[in-house]
Amino acid sequence: MSDTALPQGVSHLKAPARSAASDNAPVAETVADVLDRVKREGDTAVRDFAQRFDKVDLADLEVTPEERDAAVAALDPQTRADTEFAIENVRAFAQAQFATIGGLDDFQPRPGVHLGHRVIPLQRVGCYVPGGRYPLLSAPIMTIVPAKVAGVDEIIACLPPNAHQAMIAGCHLAGADRVFRIGGAQAIAAMAYGTETVPRVDKIVGPGNAYVNEAKRQVFGPVGIDQLAGPSEIYILADSSGDAAMIATDLLAQAEHDVRTRVGLITTDEALGRAVLQEVEAQLGELPTAHTAGPAWRDYGEIAICADENTMIAYSDQIAAEHLQVHTRDPQAMAGKLRNYGSLFIGELASVVYSDKCAGTNHTLPTMAAGRYTGGLWVGAYLKVVTHQWLTPDGVREVAPAAVRQSASEGLEGHRRAAQLRLDRLQTR
């Protein structure tokens, strides 16, 4: 069963057995209760939910500086070096992106009309760091480092109380100002509303499970969010030049994230599709994480055969995959024709795993076809662009008459008077 209707010229060698969209009503109800209680009871509710959901009694919600230092000291030297390598690359890319964002000081569309905008960092952000099935050491790097580069005043990190100690070290090394042992929907509630211990933030970023995602959806408005993230996704576009073993390896690498991961091959070559199908089954037989990757492939795996390159591109843009790899004879040319994706991996040497871990681009990306209208998390997500204007007397003479007429035609007398007043004052001087 597919979430997306097949366009003409596309057929399935393997169709998804299930839809990635699921009934969210039970999750929404549970989350609503968590948010309400944390809003009313603060730290008391947070501790109660930690006991109920995480089976942990929390005396202190915040990780102390001494505990943060101890977590860093406990890191294996190579793990620390690899973590700092990833931080360096993510920081460098975020700095390069930041350098492209500029203020606009004084644009004059008319004489005496001065317009502009400022780029202002957010004051306080909350970074949710998921625990997940594995200690994803790159997770805090992707949300915290761009916030530091953007110049955010204070960065709050929340991670489940049973998260691996290395995750605390990652938050510290990435630059979090404060770290809290709070997970799930209660972490989102604490950051959105504030408690006796956790400060209220202006925006919440970072991926999580269905409860975290639903909590972000419900608190949005009073606080900002980066996006609503569903299960991870990878699709690969390939022609007859594709390497079946490599494609199968990359599909399963992403499938081991979660049993609901969407994985797919879109190809113009049926023989390659059949070879990939065989390779996936063979590799699953000896993959240690097959208990996760196997159900993901069985339920959500897809191999689509397209009549030609244009059909392949159209189907890919319709799916708008979170991660999109291009394995074709001329991957750069193909990349230029694609428009809907979270992040693009051009050529068979560019694997999602490099972006997931340490290459520098962000791995917090849009899923469930959101790539049709948005990109992933980046340094700009921690900035707001706010406009300003100032007028000279000549500027008032330029714009006031049109504003007066427009307000009158709309029946907004107060607006008309505000525009006319300044024009009248100038004329009497």
From TrEMBL:
Binding locations of Zn(2+): Q254, H257, D356, H415
One GO molecular-function entry: metal ion binding
Lineage top rank: taxon: Bacteria
Ligand binding (NAD(+)): Y128, Q186, N209
Annotated GO biological process: L-histidine biosynthetic process
Keyword vocabulary terms for this entry: Metal-binding, NAD, Oxidoreductase, Zinc
InterPro entries found in the cross-reference section: Ald_DH/histidinol_DH, Histidinol_DH_monofunct, Hstdl_DH
Cofactor: Zn(2+)
Record-linked CDD domains: Histidinol_dh
Pfam families in alphabetical order: Histidinol_dh
GO cellular component assignments: cytosol
Coiled coil: none
Gene3D superfamilies the record matches: 1.20.5.1300, Nitrogenase molybdenum iron protein domain
Annotated active site: E322 (proton acceptor), H323 (proton acceptor)
Binding-site residues, substrate: S232, Q254, H257, H323, D356, E410, H415
UniProt remark on cofactor binding: Binds 1 zinc ion per subunit.
PANTHER family: HISTIDINOL DEHYDROGENASE (PTHR21256:SF14), HISTIDINOL DEHYDROGENASE HDH (PTHR21256)
Family designation: Belongs to the histidinol dehydrogenase family.
Protein name, UniProt field: Histidinol dehydrogenase homolog
Organism field: Paracoccus tegillarcae
Organism lineage string: Bacteria, Pseudomonadati, Pseudomonadota, Alphaproteobacteria, Rhodobacterales
